[in-house]
Design a protein that fits this description.
The chain has 299 residues and is an alpha/beta fold. 27% of the residues lie in helices and 32% in strands. The chain folds into two domains: 80 residues, Alpha-Beta Plaits; 200 residues, Vaccinia Virus protein VP39 (Rossmann fold), CATH 3.40.50. It binds S-adenosylmethionine.
């Protein structure tokens, strides 16, 4: 049980992880255990996590996460955070992210003022991936904004599939920008619970169906916009089945990929009848270039 509180000193423990996937799993376990707050930063291909914990609880958190300390996961520095500001410290790296004059993503504790006509998806950091803090999420959000703008006025609002929905951020952004309905799924039950909570927080009660499961559950269904922000190792085994869900004239937006991965996914999707329509890129602080390619199925 946590004993940290406004009167108590709080520690910030850094964990260095080699992949996004390992960072997500550590983050989920730290939250489940009861960490007071977390921050994450991309460093090279890996991620550094700052975990905030009451001084009394350091040993318990370290013990809980010890089983991760293999395969390149390592404890980093530890520092004490002044009692007066511990509850605010973990929020420092979290800010509103303006994707366009039409779309922003913001934590609820940030006093973000939407510009006229701008939709805001409110997401607090939780156990699921997808606060907009990672380049891969932002790149897809940017595509969603473009797709929504380009969708001819008078055409039917889009039907959306969000593969590996995490916090639900992509589906909720698409709905905010006019999509008719969205289906999101994730193998992780914690992510699905969170996506439901985030949807409720954003006032989305209809039009967003979320479930725990894999791509097989939507076999035979077709969508206008399909998003899949997954690690390459998670994406490649199901890429054929993801491609099948894109209806004629529909779009598939991928992310979670690095520049070097582009060739393999593009070559593979061309054999599935999808044409590369464009690639967005973002270089992170470590110099790694994240890409988000978009593909279209001919009408
Ligand atoms: C990088 S996160 C993306 C979350 C969110 N869509 C975003 O863009 O920020 C990837 C998510 O995909 C889920 N996932 C990984 N492989 C999956 C699969 N084969 N089927 C469904 N979900 C999967 C993970 O549990 C994780 O929540």
């Amino acid at each position: 049980m946590l004993t940290g509180g406004p009167e108590d000193a709080v520690l910030c423990l850094t964990v260095c992880t080699p992949t996004l996937d390992s960072a997500e799993r550590i983050l989920a376990e730290a939250w489940e255990w009861g960490a007071l707050g977390v921050e994450e930063r991309q460093v090279g291909d890996g991620v550094e996590l700052d975990l905030y914990v009451g001084v009394e609880d350091e040993g318990a958190l370290r013990a809980r996460l010890e089983h991760f300390v293999t395969d390149g996961v390592a404890w980093g520095p530890r520092r004490e955070v002044r009692p007066s500001n511990w509850s605010e410290a973990w929020k420092v790296g979290l800010r509103a992210i303006e994707i366009s004059p039409r779309l922003a993503v913001a934590p609820s504790f940030v006093d973000y003022k939407a510009t006229s006509g701008q939709q805001v998806v409110w997401i607090d950091p939780g156990q699921a991936f997808g606060t907009g803090g990672h380049a891969s999420t932002r790149l897809v959000l940017d595509w969603i904004d473009r797709l929504a703008q380009d969708r001819a006025s008078g055409s039917k609002p889009a039907e959306v599939l969000d593969v590996g929905t995490g916090s639900g951020v992509l589906a909720l952004a698409a709905l905010a920008l006019g999509a008719a309905q969205a289906i999101g799924f994730d193998l992780d039950p914690i992510a699905v619970a969170e996506a439901k909570a985030v949807a409720a927080k954003n006032g989305v009660t209809d039009g967003f169906e979320v479930f725990v499961g894999g791509i097989e559950v939507v076999a035979g269904q077709r969508f206008d916009w399909v998003f899949a922000n997954l690690l390459k190792t998670e994406m490649l085994p199901i890429l054929d089945r993801i491609a099948e869900t894109v209806r004629p004239a529909g779009w598939l937006v991928l992310a979670g990929l690095l520049e070097a991965d582009q060739r393999i996914v593009s070559d593979h999707l061309s054999t599935c009848g999808l044409e590369l329509a464009g690639v967005q890129r973002e270089r992170d602080d470590s110099g790694a270039v994240w890409i988000s390619p978009a593909f279209q199925r001919p009408a």
